[in-house]
Design a protein that fits this description.
The complex is a heterotrimer of chains A (165), B (710) and C (103). Chain A is mainly α. Chain A has helices spanning 3-24, 28-48, 52-76, 92-112, 128-137, 140-161. Chain A is globular and about 60 Å long. The chains are: A mainly alpha (165), B mainly alpha (710), C mainly alpha (103).
């Protein structure tokens, strides 16, 4: 029982509890804020996995960008005059059964597989440098395409959401 | 005058009346005076038969002339082998005499009918019917085999039916004609069975062939009992046709027909056909058969004579008198007096025809009055009729110098001889009693009709003598009733040519065991033999006239004079009593009738024989037919209706099954499809989230099926 | 407690994944469905990064995770733009009420 495990369990708990709140609460705003906590928990898990750069990117993009966007969506698509912004559930029973079974099956599969685990040493170097170099060498095509993709998404979103004159 | 000529002429005599019948039936209305055509044909037949008779009796008196041809030939009949049926004509003395009698009386009746039936609506058809009757009667007389005789027998019955029911608008006339035909049919059934017995054994219908076989010892089915049976069954035909007891009931009713018809058919010819048949089969009758025949004749003559005593219709008296005289002839055949029986047939034909035509004349002049109680004193108004009637009555009563005396005397002598030879004394006793009654009621008829004071003045004033065509036949027939036609001796007929040369009793062919004792063959018998000659297809047979056995001839001679004296005595008594009761009115007939009331009623009501037949046979047949009709209605129709009901029930059940089960099944299938559809429709929500759940489930299922992980 | 290894990270990501599916399937509001989608993407990311650490992949897993994050962002933007459009058209963002193809 080392500190690593405790921290892991802590972050896992945060993530999972928040995620469960995200999907069960009826209030959209609660749901959005629990999503925030979920992202933070995931970022913590990234750190534990030695992906510091990804963790930061997660927080920057997800929390700072996507979550804000979601909050914008929430605010823009609901009647603000109604204080209680509630939402109902659909087909609860089949969903529970399906997801429970799914989770159970997948976990069983994971636990039953013999993974070839390669232990990597923990370094004190940040991964940003390595990722940066990989991006410019091995994955430069994808990098460029993603740029174009982001451009297209930008234009597209703007086009879709603009007000009709 | 060859045999071939005689045979061809007799064939012509047979066919000419048929030609007349066909002509009159089809063209009668269109040819004016066609009744004279028919009468002329009859006259021609009469002349031809005179010619034939003369030729036969003068030149061929001892021979029989035969012409025959094959009609039907069956080559191979199972069990029986070869069968052939021939047609043929046989001329023997009996035949030519009968030819003459039939054609003469037919011609005279034709003449009489020209005036009697004048004004009738179906005038020409009447003459046509007379023609077909004459044809049939000549067929019976001429034929040489018993099958042809049966065919013509039936034809005669048919003609009688047509003529009795000539005025068929009257219900009594049509009923009488039906009765005549049906009663005759009863007799004909027996005759047919008898014919078949003979044919089954001998395979031939020809008389001569059958008699030759019997003579050589070949009995039907090898027993004398069958021979008796065959003879008696054929005699049944005679019982029917000649109105013997118990089938005599049709003859009085047959008086519904026109009076000339009664004269022709029911006095002279058709009823004589029965006697002729017995004459033909005489040689094969055994002693038992002959005794039965004699008794039948005796009973018949007695019953008819008793009924005739009280009848008041002129034709009914004559009808019962006919039945009684026929009984005489049959009785004579039965006791073996063959030649006298035939003699009586000939004489009776003439005087009975005269009596009937005379009564027709009376009825015609009295404007169809037939009850003798309303007549009287007609002798002054109708002399010719009266004298002819009187002569015929004298003949029937057996008064000397008439032909009837000779024949009746012979019959009585025959019965006396029979009684003395065999001990059956009842037969002659009854015969003499009947002679007494005959004389009585005939003279009663004459007195009430012609003598005394007229009881119906009005009709009497209008009465007149009949025209020439009606009076001439009467006179001619009366003349024929006198004695000199048959032999020179008015007392003893046996010496005359009729009985001596022309008609002789044939030798019986029955085996010795079946004969009367007096007919058994004696060594003193002589036989006349002829020889065979074949002449171009016509065969001349051996003569078979052999004299009686000595015993019988002797007995007849002995009985002859006692019979004559006795018959004169009883005849005189009868005439005396009738004069006493009806002319001199010394004895009151009503008082006598009252004193023996039950017997009087029995006589007046014909011995209730018709009523007995009605209660037994007629009722029985009606019950049977009613039962069968009910059976047909209830059971047969019931079965048919039941089948229909069952079919309807089955179809209804099938319909219900079709509606409920089949439609139900079809509907259930649709309902099931609907249910499944409704169930599965719930999956198609149109929402992506539902589909995602399904995808997850499907993925899990695939995982578990393919198990890529374990 | 067990020594934390690959399995634990995988378990966490699995549970997160099923929770994300649950959210997509159950939620009525379109934005909440988007939140579920984000959860699913994140669980996949955790998987990638975990295998980058415990497998023989070098840093490829982290690169992919990076790309996934970028794509998620782009997709969220577009999706929310669409939701806004839907809100404009239907005046509601309840997924079961958006059932017409045309106005």
């Amino acid at each position: 029982m080392n500190i690593y495990d405790v921290v892991f369990y802590l972050f896992a708990a945060i993530t999972l509890v928040s995620a469960s709140f995200v999907v069960t609460t009826r209030n959209i705003v609660y749901s959005a804020f629990c999503l925030l906590f979920t992202f933070f928990g995931i970022a913590g898990l990234y750190v534990l996995l030695g992906a510091d750069f990804i963790a930061i990117v997660q927080i920057m993009v997800y929390v700072g960008g996507i979550l804000v966007l979601i909050l914008f969506g929430v605010m823009l698509t609901n009647k603000i005059t109604n204080i209680q912004i509630k939402s109902g559930t659909l087909q609860l029973a089949p969903a529970v059964i399906a997801t429970a079974l799914l989770a159970a099956t997948l976990i069983k599969v994971f636990l039953g597989t013999e993974w070839k685990i390669v232990k990597t040493e923990a370094t004190d170097k940040t991964t940003a440098f390595a990722i940066g170099r990989l991006l410019m060498t091995d994955y430069v095509l994808i990098f460029e395409l993603l740029g174009i993709l982001l451009l297209v998404a930008l234009i597209g979103a703007a086009t879709i959401a603009r007000r009709e004159k | 005058m060859t045999e071939a000529l005689l045979l061809n002429i007799s064939l012509a005599i047979l066919l000419l009346p048929l030609l007349g019948f066909v002509t009159l039936i089809f063209f009668g209305r269109k040819i004016p005076g066609s009744h004279w055509l028919e009468t002329g044909i009859m006259l021609l037949c009469l002349l031809l038969s005179v010619y034939t008779g003369f030729g036969k009796l003068a030149y061929y008196v001892g021979q029989n002339l035969i012409m025959e041809g094959r009609w039907i030939q069956f080559w191979n009949v199972p069990v029986l082998g070869q069968i052939q049926m021939d047609l043929g004509i046989k001329l023997d003395n009996l035949t030519v005499i009968m030819l003459f009698v039939v054609t003469l009386i037919s011609f005279l009746v034709h003449l009489f009918s020209v005036a009697y039936m004048k004004g009738d609506a179906r005038y020409t058809r009447y003459f046509a019917y007379l023609g077909v009757f004459t044809f049939s009667m000549l067929g019976i007389v001429l034929t040489h085999n018993i099958l042809m005789m049966y065919i013509f027998w039936e034809l005669v019955g048919l003609s009688s039916y047509l003529l009795i029911g000539f005025w068929f608008e009257k219900k009594s006339a049509s009923d009488a004609s039906k009765k005549a035909f049906l009663v005759n049919r009863v007799g004909d059934t027996g005759m047919f069975i008898g014919i078949m017995i003979l044919f089954t054994h001998y395979h031939t219908f020809t008389f001569d062939a059958i008699f030759a076989q019997i003579a050589s010892g070949n009995l039907p089915f090898h027993s004398g009992a069958w021979l008796t049976a065959a003879g008696l069954l054929i005699f049944m035909g005679a019982v029917g046709k000649s109105a013997q007891f118990p089938l005599h009931v049709w003859l009085p009713d047959a008086m519904e027909g026109p009076t000339p018809v009664s004269a022709l058919i029911h006095a002279a010819t058709m009823v004589a056909a029965g006697v002729y048949l017995v004459a033909r089969i005489f040689v094969m009758l055994t002693a038992d058969a002959m005794l039965t025949i004699a008794i039948v004749g005796m009973v018949t003559s007695f019953i008819a004579a008793t009924i005739a005593l009280t009848q008041n219709d002129i034709k009914k008296v004559l009808a019962y008198s006919t039945v009684s005289q026929l009984g005489y002839m049959i009785m004579a055949m039965g006791v073996g007096a063959y030649n006298y029986a035939f003699f009586h047939l000939v004489t009776h034909a003439f005087f009975k025809a005269c009596l009937f035509l005379g009564s027709g004349s009376v009825i015609h002049s009295m404007h169809h009055e037939q009850d003798i109680r309303n007549m009287g004193g007609l002798r002054k108004k109708m002399p010719i009729t009266y004298y002819s009637f009187l002569i015929s009555t004298l003949a029937i009563s057996g008064i000397p110098f008439t032909s009837g005396f000779l024949s009746k005397d012979g019959i009585l002598a025959g019965t006396l001889a029979f009684g003395s030879l065999t001990g059956h004394w009842l037969i002659p006793a009854v015969a003499f009693l009947v002679a007494l009654m005959t004389a009585f009621y005939m003279f009663r008829l004459v007195i009430l009709t012609f003598h005394g004071e007229p009881r119906d003045r009005h009709k009497y004033d209008h009465a007149h003598e009949s025209p020439f065509v009606m009076a001439m036949p009467l006179a001619l027939l009366a003349t024929l009733s006198l004695f000199f036609w048959y032999g020179a001796n008015p007392i003893n007929p046996g010496t005359g040519w009729f009985l001596n040369k022309w008609v002789q009793t044939p030798h019986t062919v029955v085996p010795q065991a079946q004969r009367f004792d007096f007919m058994k063959t004696e060594t003193t018998e002589t036989e006349v033999e002829g020889n065979n000659k074949a002449v171009a297809g016509h065969k001349v047979a051996e003569a078979e006239y052999i004299t009686h056995s000595e015993h019988y001839m002797h007995a007849m001679h002995q009985a002859h004079y006692p019979a004559m004296i006795l018959s004169l005595f009883v005849g005189g008594i009868g005439i005396f009593f009738s004069f006493m009761m009806y002319h001199w009115k010394k004895i009151d007939p009503d008082k006598i009738a009252g004193s023996i009331k039950p017997l009087y009623n029995l006589s007046l009501n014909k011995w209730y024989i018709d009523e007995i037949y009605d209660a037994t046979f007629i009722r029985g047949t009606m019950l049977l037919s009613k039962f069968l009709a009910t059976f047909d209605n209830k059971v047969v129709d019931g079965i048919v209706n039941g089948t229909a009901t069952v079919t309807r029930f089955i179809s209804r059940a099938s319909g219900i099954f079709d509606n409920v089960v089949v439609d139900g099944f079809v509907n259930f299938t649709a309902y099931l499809s609907g249910l499944i559809g409704i169930f599965f429709r719930k999956f198609q929500t149109g929402k992506v989230q539902t589909y995602i759940v399904m995808v997850v489930f499907s993925a899990l299922i695939l995982l578990f099926i393919f198990r890529p992980f374990f | 407690m067990v020594q934390v290894g690959l399995n634990q990270f995988l378990i966490v990501s699995t549970i997160l994944f099923s929770l994300g599916i649950f959210g997509i399937v159950t939620r009525r509001n379109a934005v909440m469905v988007l939140m579920g989608i984000e959860l699913v993407l994140n669980s996949a990311n955790i998987n990638f990064v975990a295998f980058a650490k415990f497998g023989n992949f070098g840093l490829s897993g982290q690169i992919v995770a990076l790309f996934v994050i970028i794509l998620a962002a782009a997709e969220a933007a577009i999706a929310l733009a669409i939701v806004l459009n839907i809100y404009k058209t239907f005046a509601t963002v309840n997924v079961d009420e958006i059932d017409k193809l045309k106005e």
